[in-house]
Amino acid sequence: MKALVFPGPGRTVWRDVPDPAVMDPADVIVRVDAVTICGTDLHIVKGDLPDVVPGRVLGHEAVGTVVESGGDVRSVRPGDRVLVSCISSCGRCRFCRESRYGQCRGGGGWVLGHTIDGTQAEYVRVPFADLSVYPLPSAVDSVDAVLLADIFPTSYEVGVVNGNVRPGDTVVVVGAGPVGLAAIATALLYSPARIIAVDLAPSKLAKARELGADAIVSAAEEPERLVGDLTDGLGADVVMEAVGVPEAFEMCTRMVRPGGRVANIGVHGKPAALHLEDLWIKDITITTGLVDTYSTPLLLRMLAAGRLPTSSLITHRFDLWQMEEAYEVFSHAGETGALKVVLGGPRHEDLAVSNPSRTQRM
After folding, report:
1. pLDDT exceeding 90 applies to what percent of the chain?
2. Are 234 and 282 within 8 A, CB to CB?
3. How far apart are CA 87 and CA 16, in angstroms?
4. How many other C-beta atoms are found inside a 10 Å radius of the C-beta of residue 267?
5. Beta-sheet strands, E only, within 58-132
6. Would you say 68 and 123 are in contact if contact means Cβ atoms under 8 Å apart?
């Protein structure tokens, strides 16, 4: 099969690799029908995550069709269309029992495209299938559903839930990329009084306005003053960091009101200063987190009901074999205007097979 392989920092290649095989009775093999690229993938390519070894197939988000399953799998069977979650769960360790699946100590957590081969391929092996893939209703489009593999649960759980957004709150989202935009969309479910979006790119701010932000402001145009003006000098109830750079995090801590909440969503590769000399007296709460995906079933129901604007975040579509071109477009979002790129799409052929062989899958 073909897959997007990470040979080492600064490089990717779409090439032939061995087909995945069931290695454990809890595994499934999924034919990838739709897949996307995450900002974390770009961090890997840059060499920011040294634990990703050369030769790894990248990707941790996909929608596909089960073509083979291990003997212990009970929730899905060959022919089922499924969402492949970015987080795998053993279901047995302490953290899984607490629904903290991202911290799984039983061989799960964020493993796809990280410690095992991932989803940017024609086929992918998914471990712990009963807790790590989700059957899709026929009414849910594959391209829409793929955004629920990572960015929507990440934004909802790490941003909105951790930030404890409540009716009447003033919410600031710093960073209007895909994750920040998904945070705006899901924060609106809690009826905040206003949402303020901060970014440097006019196109992203325009999209934030389209998705429901009440005010937009460039990060270069004193957003702290605007937040102060709109809150009688108090600051925001909730500030979400969705960039992953020190300056953005430090800006968030300056915009939160006494007793407010800062929810860090961004992936940070460098230290950020925590000014406790200013913050100790303000009673603020700062949260961090890797997504657990406990909200995926809820978000799937909301998507089926038409309550999540997933398709509006998709700016570019490619065929699966155009993976390298898609990476080029996504990695230069400032010039291309890319938010989310999706490769592949729904297939409609009948998969009336119970245990296809390697030859059949090729």
Report:
1. 91
2. no
3. 26
4. 18
5. 62-69, 81-84, 123-126
6. no
